[in-house]
Amino acid sequence: MPTLIEVDWAGPYTYEEIPSDVFGIYQVYGPHPTYGQQALLYIGKTKRNFKKRLEDEAWWFGDNNGSMRYRVGTRWGNRAFTSEEIDLVEKVLIIAHAPAYNSKDVQSNWGEDAPDLVIYNWNDYGLLLPAVVADRYRASHFK
């Protein structure tokens, strides 16, 4: 039976509105010359607070005249992500959604070692799929 990880998404927020006392997965939305004004630009993770992590990513921190929006995902049910879970969830979501500015993992798939993982996205999950099955992105599925 696959491991189920449920992510509780909140947002969209402006930078000023982002809660600073939580950590997990985040999505960045904003203008893209090909994909439109509120495209999914980036999926990332942080094991410290969201605002500090976003400050490290200067390419979107300028905020394009207030047009950037952020969604933050925490573990459903007031549980904290483990370090391994947060790494896996980020990788699976990047592979499944191919955000415009994620270069790491976008073109990758797993070999036969795909994690036996299902991610349910709840509440304000934006342009993400409501459910993602990691095994769906196993390299053998694309032959």
Can you put this structure into words, describing what you see?
The protein has 143 residues and is an alpha+beta fold. It has one domain. Helices cover 18% and strands 34% of the residues. The protein has 3 helices and 6 strands; from the N terminus they run βββααβαββ. Strand 5 (117-123) and strand 6 (131-133) form a beta hairpin. The protein starts with a strand and ends in a 10-residue tail after the last strand.
Q: How are the SSEs placed, and which strands pair?
A:
Elements: E1 3-13, E2 24-32, E3 36-46, H1 50-56, H2 58-61, E4 69-75, H3 83-97, E5 117-123, E6 131-133
Order of strands, main sheet, comes to 3-2-4-1-5-6
The strand count comes to: 6
Mean pLDDT across all residues, rounded? Answer: 85
Quote the beta fraction: 25-35%
SSE order: EEEHHEHEE
Helix content: 10-25%
Oligomer: single chain
Radius of gyration: 15 Å
Distance between the amino and carboxyl termini: 25 Å
Indicate how many domains the architecture comprises: 1
Major β-sheet annotation: 6 strands, mixed
Instruction: Figure out the total of helices.
Output: 3
User: What is the structural class?
Assistant: alpha+beta
Q: Which regions have little confidence, pLDDT < 50, spanning 5+ residues?
A: none
Indicate the overall shape.
globular
Task: Give short descriptive properties of this protein.
143 residues, alpha+beta, 6-stranded mixed β-sheet, 34% strand, globular
